[in-house]
Design goal:
four-stranded antiparallel sheet, Ice-binding_C, 25% strand, Ice-binding protein C-terminal domain-containing protein, elongated
Length: 130
């Protein structure tokens, strides 16, 4: 996403661009005007980003992009200035929870190396005659 100016307002409607996306598991989006949202205005989804949610004015709200084994999630809600922050709103808590779980589900390269080394040792021990 690209970022521009800041504003705080009653939240506009949210357009769902990818209804079945993993980032929305367990998420119940707030009704328009139900919360005060701090957000950036004029964000755009750039090439390579998977768009998930947008504000009704077309501003990018939620999207992600994979980088190799990594993942970058863009979420356009000010986490410390709005009623929709993870400190006080279940829907944004769930989005952050889903994003963190997706990232931590990817094994570290060292984990794979240890697993493969252990498997190799077991195979070598089985082949050696007693």
């Amino acid at each position: 996403m690209r970022w521009s100016g800041t504003m705080q307002e009653a939240n506009p409607a949210i357009d769902v661009l990818a209804a079945g996306d993993w980032l929305l598991n367990g998420v119940a989006l707030p009704a328009a005007g139900s919360q005060t949202i701090g957000r950036e205005v004029g964000n755009e989804f750039v090439e390579g980003v998977t768009p998930v949610l947008a504000w009704e004015d077309g501003t990018a709200l939620l999207g992600y992009r994979r980088y190799g084994a990594g993942l970058v999630v863009g979420f356009d809600v000010h986490l410390t200035t709005s009623d929709a922050s993870p400190l006080s709103a279940g829907w944004s808590n769930q989005v952050v929870f889903n994003a963190v779980n997706a990232v931590s589900a990817v094994p570290e390269p060292a984990t794979w190396a240890l697993l493969l080394a252990g498997t190799g040792v077991l195979l070598l021990r089985r082949r050696q005659p007693e």
